[in-house]
Amino acid sequence: MAQLRDLKDELDIVIPTIRNLDFLEMWRPFFQPYHLIIVQDGDPSNTIGVPEGFDYELYNRNDVNRILGPKASCISFKDSACRCFGFLVSKKKYIFTIDDDCFVAKEPSGKEINALEQHIRNLLTPSTPLFFNTLYDPFANGSDFVRGYPFSLREGLPTAISHGLWLNIPDYDALTQLVKPRERNTRYVDAVMTIPKGTLFPMCGMNLAFDRELIGPAMYFGLMGDGQPIGRYDDMWAGWCAKVICDHLLLGVKTGLPYIWHSKASNPFVNLKKEYKGIYWQEDIIPFFQSIALREECTSVHDCYIELANKVKERLGPIDPYFEKLGDAMVTWIEAWNELNPPPPAQTATVAHPNVAMKN
Question: Per the UniProt annotation, where are the glycans attached (predicted)?
Answer without folding.
Answer: 147
